[in-house]
Amino acid sequence: MEHRHYFILVQKIAVMLAVLLTAGLLLAGIPALAGSQVAIQTDKGTWELREGGSDGPLRFTVTFGEKDTLLVDQYGQTEEYPYEFSGSRENYACEITFPDGTEWYWNQHSMGGSGGGTWYDTHMLQSPYPDPEALCEVIVEGKTGRSGSSLNFGKVLLILLLAGAGVFQLVSPETAWYLSYGWRFKDASPSNAALVMERVGGVLLLGVGVLVFFIL
């Protein structure tokens, strides 16, 4: 009975880690939620802000002006957006001033980020201006030469490998044991302790995947 309760506890922890990792990957891997804008570089120094995704309708065209300003064009009318930026791709501070005087800022670091500003008081529900997150993406990419997205292919691949191996050990600990040790012996079968260790190893792999996602 004690072993059975232990198995149930291990499985619950594994499910929680898997859900957390999957949710984080989905939230970080999707460039924009429905209704928001995504920045797409079309030429050196030129970005398009499209509604809802790369195939969505074009809303704004953005280029860099002089003295830390963005030039945002909509239907042939161009406005200047002063900004301040400091730091690197992983750790930066970005502040944007909109034509009506409202401000938006974001501070990004390796463990996450936080932001605010008067923009939220006026334009949170509806705004004639570009999405500030998309503008910040343009600034980060333009200033650092790389996208401000927190995920890259290598990181995603590592997380998927860790998560896949962890889930495999949890779902089929007997097969995982056989691939590691059982094939060396004839008619061998794993003990209960060996199966427990396989499941614990699966939980640890999922935990490492979560740490890689949030820290690296």
Task: Explain briefly what this protein structure is.
The protein is built from 6 helices and 8 strands; from the N terminus they run H-E-E-E-E-E-E-E-E-H-H-H-H-H. With 216 residues, the protein is an alpha+beta fold.
Topology of this structure?
Layout lengths: L1 H28 L7 E7 L2 E6 L6 E7 L4 E6 L2 E11 L4 E6 L5 E7 L2 E5 L2 H5 L8 H13 L8 H19 L1 H8 L11 H24 L1
Antiparallel strand pairs: 1-2, 2-3, 3-4, 4-5, 5-6, 6-7, 7-8
Helix pairs in contact: 1-4, 1-6, 4-5, 4-6, 5-6
**Average pLDDT over all residues:** 80
Categorize the overall geometry.
Answer: elongated
How many helical elements?
A: 6
The main sheet comes to: 8 strands, antiparallel
Q: Strands across the major sheet, in which order?
A: 1-2-3-4-5-6-7-8
Total domain units:
2
The proportion of residues forming helix, as a percent range, comes to 40-55%
Provide a descriptive summary of the structure in words.
The chain has 216 residues and is of the alpha+beta class. The chain folds into 2 domains: 2-26 and 152-215, no CATH class; 34-144. The protein is built from 6 helices and 8 strands. It has helices at 2-29, 119-123, 132-144, 153-171, 173-180, 192-215; strands at 37-43, 46-51, 58-64, 69-74, 77-87, 92-97, 103-109, 112-116. It has an 8-stranded antiparallel β-sheet, with helices on one face. β2 and β3 form a beta hairpin. The two termini are 40 Å apart.
Keywords:
8 strands, 6 helices, 45% helix, eight-stranded antiparallel beta sheet, 2 domains, alpha+beta, 25% strand, 216 residues
